[in-house]
Amino acid sequence: MSTRLATGGRLLNKGKPLQFTFNGKRLRGFEGDTLASALLANDQVLVGRSFKYHRPRGIVASGAEEPNGLVNLGEDGTFEPNQRVTTTELFEGLSAESQNHWPSLEFDVGAINTKLSRFLPAGFYYKMFIHPRPLWKHVYEPFIRQSAGLGRAPKVPDADTYEHFHFFCDVMVIGGGVAGLQAAKAAAVTGAKVLLVEQTAQWGGRAPVDGGTVDGKPVDNFVDEMIADLEAMPNVTLRKRLMGAGVYDHGYVLGYEQLRDHAPESSGPRHRLWRVRAGHVVTAAGAIERPLSFAGNDIPGVMLASAMRDYVVNYGVSAGDRTVVVTNNDDAYLTAFALENAGLRVPVILDARVLATDSPAMAEAKALGIRVMMGHGIAKVQGGKRVTGVGICSQAGEGAVLEEVACDAVAMSGGWSPVVHLWSHCGGKLVWDEAQAHFRPDVDKAPTGAAGEAFVSPAGAAAGDLRLAAVLGSADQAGKAAAEAVGFKHTRAKAPVGETPEEAPMMPVWLMPQGAGAALRSKAWLDYQNDVKVSDVQLAAQEGFESVEHAKRYTTLGMATDQGKLSNINGLATLAGALGSNIPDVGTTTFRPPYTPISMGAIAGEARGAVFQPIRRTPMHDWHDANGAEWEPVGQWRRPYAYVREGESTHDAVMRETKNARENLGLLDASTLGKLIVKGPDAGRFLDMLYTNMMSTLKPGKCRYGLMCSENGFLIDDGVVARIDADTFLCHTTTGGAERIHQHMEEWLQTEWWDWKVWVANVTEQYAQVAVVGPNARKALEKLGGMDVSKEALGFMEWADGELAGFKVRVYRISFSGELSYEIAVDAGQGQAFWDALMVVGHDLGVMPYGTEALHILRAEKGFIMIGDETDGTVIPQDLGLDWAISKKKDDYLGKRAQARTHMTDPERWKLVGLETLSGAVLPDGAYAVGEGVNANGQRTVIGRVTSSYHSPNLGKGIAMGLVLHGPDRMGEVLEFPGTEGATFKARIVDPVFYDKHGEKANV
Amino acid sequence: MLILTCPVCGVTAEETEFHGGGEAHLTRHGPGSSDDDFEDYLFMRENPRGVHFERWRHVYGCGKWFHAARCTTTLEVFGTYPAQTTEPPKDLQKTISKKRPGWTWRDLA
Question: Is the peptide bond before A208 cis (omega within 30 degrees of 0)?
């Protein structure tokens, strides 16, 4: 059993016991524990179930590479799934539950999958669920969805806060082990501004556990001294619990700082996302030990040798009383020594290597009385939810069991892989190291910055230098090089000298035993979380998935939440073996940031709720709000959809507002309409290029409706242009279009016609604009008093500056409703006062404000198009019967050439018509009209679609506009529009102008 | 995230301050142009592995468009220059030749 030892545990504060729960069970740990060490101390070896077969799974690792120990952590507003037990620091009251099991962790029904594993090989889902097609939607998809995903999604909003933090430094060192410390020091003594970050809560990395000396002193003393030195330097910033998550272009680095995960009772943000710009980056992220592939290597109790050592030394936790060590290198012997030192038994060390003479480690083991078997390995681990023993075999053989040894834990080591993720994120290349059987950074092919310079240097184990002496040397060099790269002069200070016992070379072992048969290979796990075995990768190769990227996706190797940190190299080697090629030729899959998952909260930072996106308000916003406005987002603006009165439905309000604008007097807040001033000697010429119609001939004092197209011919905006004087125009754009059209104009002016003398200014927010609409509109303005607004003084499609009720105004006689209408602009600061004045004079004239829905109905009754309804980026003006607004005289305008293409002039293009339901009902917006016959997919032929559809209170029926094949030639024909749930609508094709066909109402 | 220098206002800033605008130095083909020319102008783009000329706009700065010469594989920025030109400045082309002997882009080399 796993238990807490009476002595040991260098990171523990045994004076401070902590209580926590796991699956509702109350357990005890100490301050300094991780959740993993505390679970092991309570004999909780089983921590989860695997994804596919629901196999029982125990803790394998002691750090970020842990594939099995994922739990749901916290409750309600602080609930979070998939938290790694090995990187979760224990705190008082922590509550965790295991994942992917039903009904309980100990007894799981899904575990039947493991009995069926023979029938669930790689690619099973692809092969099984493709036929017959109809079963997909109702049988397969619900099944797969139910079994997909680990953990649960949170049900309530996140109760914590998060923040972003910007930081700039000369050198950023990622990793606070001895390599990181030395690199930081070497860079900092030059005077460079240095940021040193460490993802865990401790400095020193593996060195204090693995031992050795630096300049003759124990390595932990060296670590303490280095920290003291660095903390005393004003140009160094040190942060623990801060992971270097990703390295991006030109020295941009994302850091993920966990501020309160270990201390939830403290205040402040939970996580902080560091957005760092570093002149040079040193990756000192260490190395990760590899598992060995033998049958039963996933049974709880089988652990990485280094992890087992960590638990004993750091946390005083033993994984078992009797531990078999299995290895292909000398490093794992350290685990045997640590266990023996703690008074635990190591019945045998199985070393796959055959060496001519004993390595120093072997000799020491034998001196301690530990049995060492060279050339041997594990044929099979015995046990179900717990290791009970191992069958020993010859590594060279096929797995015949020579001897059985009882044990309750297995420590395995397949060698070490440098953490190359950060190096690779931004394009650093790798090289295969034959001697150590791993990929390490190719320093000649580093990620490059803006000037083409290398901006990342690897240091220590992350560079492939695994032994303490080499670590310190390479780290010192990396730190000096980093400082030099950003312009600092380094001294000739010598690197400290590290010493550890000599080691014999490791031997690559990709399968144990090397001749293992199918039965053993199908129980030898590569990816623990996703249940990928040696046999699956071999099957993928056999089925032709030769590219490593394809094999990965087919088998899901390395696609679990640990992203292949443990399994990657073993999987590549297995694939290479199956393909009969070399590992470097097979290559690696792509490393993508973040290094380990970071919280969505940290990514969002402060951008939540009202801060997520700013809301633009018109000067009359508060009045609308106080008068029943239901809001509609239009771009970033909020516009009143309707002003709903007490006891009235929204629909009632819309109907009332629409009728009143035609019968009495309506007011619309039109301030959101874009207003662009286009000025200069070439302004007319420029607008002739921008609009489809002729603007240069417009006389000062006049207005003209214009259409704007992209160079691709499609309609992008419309609006009324007023000519202010000889070289000044004011262009109205749609509400959402002001910024976009402004930029469109700037782009053409700056990049194509840069010699034209034109300036553009966006004055949208400088003015409040009110549309005064309806038969009483003129009376209202006359009551305000001031300028002459008669038909003679200010005709339809004219504008004038003047005064009304003492307000300085610009009045446009334009109409989007078809009624007598004045759009009046005042300075934004006067908007509310002017609106109030209109409400006062309008009182006896039946004034009512109206919202965007009434605006839509009024324009639809008149057959006016709306950008975004009648247009969708594929519609040209000719489709909408707007040929009258396209100049025939102009040689050129944006979109003219495109509109001459054959498919643009095709008579088969759908054209705008009006639609009137036979029953008077409202057609569903977006409904399709069906014709005779079916298409290639067996679906009914479509011959048109509804673009706008409303109930018109003024006409007392449903009206719509739509685009229909040969529409204008089919007036009077009845079309069929299938709706949802079996409903079918019949509608007659009519003229799109439903109301006041000759425009007499507006022109009075 | 790239770092670029706006040649108009001289500010060196993060990519988030800019907006990419696709390939530089397109020749506009209007009414009267052939279908092939127009198709090329509207749709056909270089997709080089290496030296590329792009349009950028300093959208959250001075608002001006400019051009950048950049390596699409190493992300090296060879230089930026104002948009009011139909081809990259000669000295910039020379700089690129030194760093990337044998480079080509459309009919430049």
Answer: no
